[in-house]
Amino acid sequence: MSDVSTEHLRAALRGHGWRAAVVPIERLADVRSAIDRGRAEVDEGVREVVDRNLDLGVSLPGARSLVAVVVPHACARVTVTRGGRTHDVPIPTTYCHHDELQAEVLGTVARLVAAAGARVALAGLPEKLVAAGAGLGRYGRNNIFYADGCGSFCELAVCVTDLAPDDDPWTGPLLLERCETCDACRRACPTGAIGGDRFLLHGDRCLTLHNESERPFPDWIDPAWHHCLWGCLRCQRCCPQNLAVRDEVAETAVFDERETALLLAGVGRDLPAHEDGLRGKLGELGLLSYDGDTLGPVLARNLAAVLAAR
Question: Which value, in Å, is the radius of gyration of the alpha carbons in the chain?
């Protein structure tokens, strides 16, 4: 059995272009405390979403550490065609190739720690909180995680392993220093989700919450606000921390008039056998593995809203 230190693990992950931090499993107590404090401040609808997507337990017996990994990942862009006109529509980070990147991180970490006889499992933990707490980056005023070199355009993954940590780099989540004197994101947010009364986002006002949901848009959402296939980029594109990377695009796809009509009709994963071209484009964007049924009806609704706002 080889001697694999957590420093060796971090160095190996840097070789993939990723940044990682390893903290003792006892830091779960800090994570749980932060979640409890946050739950007390958010509205009930947002609390339900948080509770549905988090699992603060640890599925790996004998787990000794948490491994947080930052994977730089720029936004994607699709070009759709309607009425003879083309429209570029952005897709923010985390929607394209999310599941593939999570699996790649897990597989890579597992191979690296296996030399020490250690095991690894993905954790259903709040990735932003763990990564920021472990010192890999900081929160912005918009409650989004920022890392050096890629700003807010990154994927995060958190694993648990029974590899013993070398040290404890935990700092707790911190705010970007420039946010102390900048409110560009608050001014750019059309919904008022970034308030001046507290640090936590007013999630019930966030456009992302509503365009990820299958529920109809609330009446208070102005149709002109829609601009992304999912999510929202207004607070990220105006952020000075993203100035050097905000125009980077990881991948693109062009949909002709017929393919755009199929997307607007709510076609999801169950594409007809002859639609290999459309299936290939969605697959290359990493959308065929996107969670739930949002690839069909929700994508169609969001795309129609974006086109109506043009």
Answer: 20
Helix (H, G, I), strand (E, B) or coil at 231: coil
Residue type, 43: D
Tokens representing residue 294 in the block = 């949002």
Pick from 299, 306, 151: which is nearest to 238 by CA? 151
The domain spans of the chain are 6-309
Q: Please, what sign has the CA dihedral across residues 280, 75, 146, 293?
A: negative
Residue 263, CA atoms < 13 Å, CB-side half-sphere: 28
* Tokens coding 282: 């969605």
Beta strand 145-146 with 138-139 is antiparallel
Give the C-alpha separation, 115 to 130, whole Å.
25
Phi, psi of 118 (to 5 degrees): -95, 160
Sequence-ordered list of residues with C-beta below 8 angstroms from that of 103, at least 6 positions apart, any chain: none
Q: Is the pLDDT of residue 1 over 50?
A: no
Answer whether 28's CB lies under 8 Å from 66's CB: yes
- In the prediction, which pLDDT does 122 show? 85
